[in-house]
Predict the structure.
Amino acid sequence: MSAQSGLRSALAALAAVCVIAGCGSRPAYWDSPVTITTTVGLPSGVALVDDTDHRLVVLTADADLNLTARSYPIGHNVATTATSADGSTLFVLSAGDTNPTNAQDGPSLTTIQVDPTTSKVTPQQYAMSQPCTSLAVDPLGHWAVAYAQTGFVQNQNELVIFDLTLSPASATGANPNPITHTLQSFGGTPQQLTFTPPLLVDPALGVAVPGGSVNGDRRLLVIETQIDVSLLDLDHAFDNPPRPEFTIPLTPEASTQSTTPAGVAIDGFDATDSADAVLAVRTSNDTNVYIVSFGPPGPTDKNDFSPVVSQTPVGGIVSDIAFVHANGALRLAVLIPQLTAALLVDPSAAGSGVIPPTVSLPQPYSTLSLVTPAAGAGAAASDVALLWNGVSTNGVALWTLGQALTQSYFSIDVPGVSVPIQTVSDVPNSSSLMVLEPSNGSGFFVLNLQSDEVAPLTATTTPTLSIAPDGGRVWAFVPGETELAMIDFSTLNPIPLNDTAPIDAAYDIAIAGASPARALVALHLEGSVGATVFNALTPNTTPPRRTSSLLLEAP
Amino acid sequence: MKAYAIPAAMAVVVLGGPAARAQSEPEAEWRPSTRAGDWREQVARFEVGYRGVFVTNAGYNPFSTDDYFSGASLTLSRTVYTHGRFAFAPGVSWDYGATETTARGDSTSLKVNRLTVPLEGRAHFGPFGYVFVRVAPGVAGERSEVDDPSAPSALTKSVWLFTTDASAGYAVPVLPLPEHPGRAVRIWLQGDAGYSWVVDNRLALTPATSNDGQTAAAVDLGSLGLRGAFLRFALAVSY
């Protein structure tokens, strides 16, 4: 080979190497802008769902207000998220890829548990066979249920039930987790799911015994469809063969109009008393409430108990219900806005056809919240309910249920809130404080239930509130603006703070290992996400710390 | 146009050069190196070229959509020693390259200035030019920048780092060699390939300005190792 041809060959090879090597490209997620639609406050961190990068980013703060970002993989195409009742566990339901290349890319439920004291994170992923869009999480942390399938062919009555106390297990194994359960359908599909506390459904079965195999203490899943209500025994949901659910039709057979359930109340005050194993169902287009108690099974029942249903006419469409105690007696409190009244229904007399006497209200309130411990009513002999969500003045009312049975006229107390209230929030760790947000957005109120004081706090712009989980303070900000204020509940003194970037969300979190230190993380969801971290206890004397590009991860 | 298209085109040009020259200048016309005025002695050269590095380090991903970093290269050298067909020529080089793109929606850029001292050994083959090997230690100034709307200002970091190139290549004269003795202006086309190495750069970017009452934390993008195989094509003038 001549020197010239050798040279030509060498240069041609170099050109080829150049072309081939230059074709190398970076991972695709670098080309996708950050789009954060879900942020979640955890006890000691803030979680950001980065669906583009298929990860959850958990931000934690240290005593110097530095943020640390840690990433954990989640399923592809996030459908919804939820948190546990104590806020320490985040649930991410993912629809998965259309044509997944492996199990991790298919439909799944990822649980991310963050230890509130150490910030240690424990992720776990449960694979699913079908994508779903909705998720219900057991407030007691035992179960989660996914429903509302998506995809080409869907079975909307199939529930995917996860036992969160067990590790994920293959659907083809001996003890699969999750399992699927198809509801018998009469035309409805699940719309709302509610987990009951333990209910003694049949005293003959005995009460709960640790390690015992037979008892009558059951956790039930209440499934509301458009036309009926179903009850599923969760404690036996993983049996093989599975036990069927009970379906309670609400629409009379002769009727052409469907009766649609609109809410459930559960009397689970005492798990060892069968008298407290009672459910109530209200509807959106029927003037009855339905009381469900429990008894022994019928001869053909595959369950070891059965529901007993009775209906009580109340004279109007019910907007909210709750089981309460009035002078030691169990009652179902019923709100009927169209009558501007409330009722106390005796569950034991349900089905008698008698409409209980009404309690007139100053407003057609549509929502009630039990505030007994906060209002200082003492023992559970009589509860106190806060009535709200009215339409005009007299924004809230306190309903003293002990007097309601005897002196109904004197049972209503109206604090000095002169605007309709849209949202009522408890203040954690407080025995008396509640935060009321009006529907017209003129500010908010701090209601002291013990002293009947109502402190109005006005704002120039409708604020978004973030109540600190330790109950010490509330933060007010306007999404997309830089104004921020901290209001200490002990003084109600607003401390104005200005961030230098628009705030999209704010979370008051504990600083792990530095209790009682806390930090306020104000998120800026622009670019690749930034945050300003304030000392939550002394925000006006400690300079905040700004961190940016939190989702431009290190290689 | 992809960055790698430029060196590819230059390669084609270089490929065409020697073929045309071989037809017009037979090998027999080559005079021995003992002729007075041979270009191996006391020759100063100035090179202008293109330099491309194939960077596969993950730290480069925020700054480029591909694994290629291109730039310009200027070199000034002088032959200081000859022995037979061999020569040694030290010099100085300045390379400049820049890349910009977006990373997760943020605008990013990386600018690199390299100042090196190329130490080049040559073996001449008469009218066919010469082969050379080159080692070029020096420093590289890297300026990385991320423009993130969530940051108070652009996040930047500038640093000077130790760098070294090691390469081998070939230079061919473009014009026919002069017959007369003595020094003369000559034009060359040359190409070399090798490996370029720069000390890792920890990308702790900080805002250029701070806001009143706030302290700004650095953003850690990991380590950038701007190293990899490289190609260089240059047009040189010697005298």
The mean pLDDT of chain A is 86. The longest helix of chain A spans residues 3-22. The CA atoms of residues 423 and 437 of chain A lie 5 Å apart. The two ends of chain A are 46 Å apart (CA to CA).
